[in-house]
Design a protein that fits this description.
Chain lengths: 396, 367
């Protein structure tokens, strides 16, 4: 019998900000890459969510919905630091850990009962350690497969715990609202409603073939398996070599290039910081795109040398995006670094090369910034990601 | 245009032309081979814009004329029909290819020969002659070390320069370097060093005969080569080749020697476990032996010991597997002399007894 824990850090970036600055506690916080023109919400506190703000929403729209919100720049290094701490706590409970993104992990806890007791006891122990050591709160979903665990983790937030017992997968799904069907966004739900399938129960009564006819093979399979509480393979095959990745499912499909670029920039910084944090290096980038019709494609690009700094990762990500994206609305975008190895072995050079030296210098700066912020030496971020004061906004 | 010729003789030249052509677009004139028949001669030309190719073969011309046709398809047709005489005739904007002994017939679209780019040319009196065997050996010893990093375009070719009584060829990718300085008799004129793209050099290696002479001419834009009835040209790479003399160590502290074939065999076995990304391979040198080993990985590890002549201190040098394998493969000696001063600085490989070439490689970090 398999037992998976999916653990989500509650409103992660916003929570970190209020831990580091207790005055912010209980206020509507919006963290995001936020120059006035570009930039989307990375995370917002639960207080901000009440105004209708959600992640991946353009900052401009968030400001309109929640003008009294406190808008903060992304301090990726600090989040990575805390994320690593949390992940290493998880790793104490099981070695079988998929780090889904900076604030999410999927743990295979199969066969750990004798060590950690019942699933509830194990979850309580993990929560306690995370709270004591970082001040953060987590929501845990426990289920016999990864997909259901992921959904369960999102049911009761913050500080939630939802357990799906084996045999109860289908029944659990039937009891949920349609919008809990992870992977089905506004548009798919709209289409389902048009078809009269406005509840999970009704969706479950439709056969696989019919769904495939209506939504195409990929979409139909996804909806069928998902609605019956089976894992449609959301984390794919576990990669042979190590990789780190980040992905965002948009609540509303995105077709605007600037938003996508901002999301990618954020991801590039996150991945770079995680890579540095673990002392790894990579020269392969992978981009994952899922279109509104569930067509999912992945593309990778391998560089001649290892990525030096987040700028290199972002540039490569844009190149792959330009090559692969056909402009149709996307429901999900993911970015990853593959074939991670221990820091690249240094190969001696016969001639000194200026461009090499420049790239290495700027990466050294990035690394120093990362180290400094890890040791609590102030808040440093890219100027481009600092929110512009309202008054500077060009009048239209 | 109309001529008859032996299929095999024609096919041989068309396959050479196919090696030159890089475009596979049926509408582009540079995907086409240029054919011109006159006075019982067929002139064949091909280009990829950078390289020019021309040869001539004897044919029986019924009607002189010139045309260009899609080389890829022409090659396909010639490869599919049996040996014998074939007839090629132009009809309007097509050519008809007919084996004289079969009822088959192919018709191939053409593009007018006027649209074919003018290939660069140089006066015959500018050529100088080099012994083919020497020039090919100089190429073989260096061309593999060329950089394929387009951002370092000035290392994307072999540097050829005049030396007293001969020529120097050098290639480097910034991490290893291959050098030959060969004494050559003949009338080599003075010229400023040039960077020659590897494609034309590889063609010479593959296609030029071992014996006899190769004629070479150089101007400030192109290099021209003649052997047999072939005329090749290539544009030169503009830019400043790095100051390679600066990185050639004047003297090195330690030296060891080993059997080239023994080392290569051991290297091949150890390479099974060499980590594919960095290709780092370790060479532990101690009195009279070298231990080659791979990185320890989850899959396993390989280790092999070979004998050598060495009297210096124990040392471990890490090198990219390819960087040591490639020069050793092209060296033409039984024994190899390896020199170094420090394990983090340049390593030199030369034949023993020493000859007119050597290879330099930079090691990798050991831990």
């Amino acid at each position: 019998m398999r037992r998976y824990f999916h653990i989500d850090l509650d409103a992660f970036f916003a929570s970190v900000e209020s831990i580091d600055n207790p005055e912010l506690h209980g206020k509507p916080l919006i963290v995001g890459g936020a120059s006035s023109r570009r930039g989307v919400v990375s995370t917002c506190s639960y207080e901000a969510r009440r105004f209708g703000v959600h992640s991946a929403m353009p900052i401009a729209e968030a400001r309109r919905l929640c003008p009294q919100g406190i808008y903060l720049p992304v301090r990726m290094e600090r989040y990575v630091e805390l994320s690593s701490k949390v992940m290493s706590i998880y790793a104490d409970f099981t070695p079988e850990l998929i780090r889904v993104s900076i604030d999410e992990a999927n743990l295979d806890m199969t066969g750990t009962e004798r060590l950690w007791g019942s699933p509830e006891e194990a979850a309580a122990a993990i929560k306690k350690r995370v709270r004591e050591e970082t001040g953060l709160s987590i929501s845990v979903g426990i289920a016999p497969n990864r997909y259901l665990a992921k959904i369960a983790s999102g049911i009761r937030k913050p500080d939630g715990l939802v357990l799906v017992e084996p045999g109860q997968e289908a029944a659990f799904m039937r009891g949920l609202e349609l919008d809990k069907l992870w992977g089905a966004g506004v548009k798919t739900r709209g289409r389902l409603e048009e078809l009269g399938l406005d509840t999970m129960e009704k969706l479950c009564s439709v056969g696989r073939e019919t769904l495939c006819q209506l939504f195409g093979k990929a979409g139909g399979d996804f909806l069928f398996m998902g609605s019956h509480g089976q894992d449609p393979g959301i984390y794919g095959q576990e990669p042979k070599s190590r990789s780190i990745s980040a992905e965002t499912t948009f609540e509303r499909d995105v077709r605007d290039r600037e938003s996508l670029e901002s999301v990618l920039l954020g991801m590039a910084e996150e991945l770079c910081a995680r890579m540095y944090d673990e002392g790894l290096s990579s020269r392969t980038i992978q981009l994952k795109l899922r279109y509104e019709d569930f067509e999912t494609l992945g593309a990778r690009e391998t560089m001649r040398g290892p990525f030096i700094g987040s700028a290199g990762i972002y540039d490569a990500a844009l190149r792959v995006l330009n090559r692969k994206w056909d402009g149709r609305p996307l429901r999900l975008i993911g970015l990853g670094l593959a074939n991670l190895g221990a820091g690249e072995v240094e190969q001696g050079s016969l001639f000194e090369d200026d461009s090499d030296r420049a790239a290495k210098k700027s990466a050294a700066v990035e690394r120093a910034v990362f180290e400094a912020s890890k040791r609590g030496l102030g808040k440093i971020t890219r100027a481009r990601l600092v929110p512009k004061p309202e008054k500077d906004k060009p009048k239209k | 245009m109309k001529f008859t010729c032996d299929k095999n003789a024609f096919q041989k030249e068309i396959s050479f032309a196919q090696e030159i052509i890089s475009s596979k677009s049926a509408v582009s004139v540079v995907s086409n081979v240029y054919l011109e028949a006159f006075e019982n001669t067929l002139v064949i030309r091909a280009t990829d814009i950078k390289i020019g190719f021309e040869t001539r073969i004897p044919v029986e011309v019924q009607e002189p004329g010139g045309i260009t046709v899609f080389c890829d398809k022409l090659g396909g047709i010639l490869g599919s029909i049996p040996e014998g005489t074939i007839e090629i005739e132009q009809k309007d904007n097509r050519i008809i290819i007919k084996p004289t002994f079969k009822k088959a017939q192919f018709s191939l679209k053409t593009i007018s020969s006027e649209q074919f780019p003018q290939l660069p040319d140089i006066d015959d009196d500018k050529y100088f002659s080099l012994p083919a065997a020497d020039f090919k050996a100089m190429i073989a010893q260096t061309v593999f070390a060329v950089s394929d990093d387009e951002t370092r375009y000035f290392m994307n070719g072999v540097f050829v320069e005049r030396a007293e009584e001969g020529l120097v060829t050098v290639a480097t990718d910034g991490r290893r370097l291959a050098y030959v300085k060969r004494t050559l008799s003949g009338n080599i004129p003075d010229f400023k060093g040039v960077i020659v793209p590897p494609k034309i050099l590889s063609l010479i290696l593959r296609r030029a005969p071992e014996e006899g002479l190769i004629d070479v001419a150089i101007n400030d834009k192109n290099i021209f080569v003649k052997f047999g009835l072939y005329r090749l040209s290539s544009i030169l790479i503009e830019g400043q080749f790095p100051n390679y003399q600066k990185v050639v160590p004047e003297s090195q502290k330690y030296e060891l020697s080993f059997k080239r074939s023994e080392f290569l065999e051991a290297l091949k076995r150890v390479s099974i476990f060499v980590e594919q990304k960095s290709r780092r391979t370790f060479f532990a040198i101690s009195e009279n032996k070298i231990v080659l080993s791979s990185e320890e990985s989850e899959v396993g590890t390989a280790r092999e010991e070979i004998s050598c002549t060495y009297e210096g201190p124990e040392a471990v040098i890490a090198m990219n597997y390819r960087y040591i394998d490639e020069p050793l493969r092209v060296m033409d000696c039984e024994d190899v002399l390896m020199r170094y001063t420090e394990t983090s600085r340049a390593v030199t490989l030369s034949p023993l007894p020493e000859s007119d070439y050597f290879h330099i490689l930079m090691p990798m970090q050991v831990d």
